[in-house]
Design brief:
The chain is α/β, with parallel strands linked by helices. It is built from 8 helices and 7 strands. Helix 7 links the parallel strand 6 and strand 7.
Amino acid sequence: MKINGIKTSMAKKEKAIKIQDVLEEEHRIRQAFKDKDWSEIKSANSWVIFKVMSEFVEGFEKLAKIGPCVTIFGSARTKPVHPYYKTAETIAELLVQQGFGVITGGGPGIMEAGNKGAHKAGGKSVGLNIFLPHEQKGNIYIDPDKLITFDYFFVRKVIFVKYSQGFIVMPGGFGTLDEISEALTLIQTKKIGRFPIVMVGKKFWSGLIDWFKKTLITEKMISPEDMDLFSVVDTPEEAVAVIEEFYGKYMLSPNF
């Protein structure tokens, strides 16, 4: 009876959360169509501008002297028992051994694994966290002085790109696809240097890569040479080797 009571209580709580989500979404949509007077517009816009500025300033100040880092992207939903989690953790450890710090999105899943690996190896562990409707907290493996929490995804993405010397892309969802697309676009358009992008998990990424080849290239949406902007590997050792080889060409090494 007690177990059934707990299940009923949890079901009611989940239903209440869903109803609240629907109401909040409806409110946001209605607000977009609401007429505002000039005073409201000016007040709201001014607050947003200053909030955005403050997030950029904090990000620049905290990370300006952090040294060479590699960002690890991936799903927040990956559990510690999953092989992807262990792979990300090992990649982070190997990166630290090669002299790099590790940057993640600061949350659970693959992000936690990346910070955990960096922490275990004694390297710099950076977390760029984000406020979400169902609160995402920074994981416990981030260096206390290197945790930044953002309201705005676009500010967070700028900081990712500005302070990363490479990108490891583990399996993930919409957020991960957004992040890899951002990095690929900036490199393709030469807005940033051609830093290495390494996608980990050939089986996971095969469908997307086939679509690149069969649709984007066929439809001339991208050039065949754009496929050279990233590498696809399976193991932690292969992932880190791509980063090492890239910087070896320029006789560059991390300087921690």
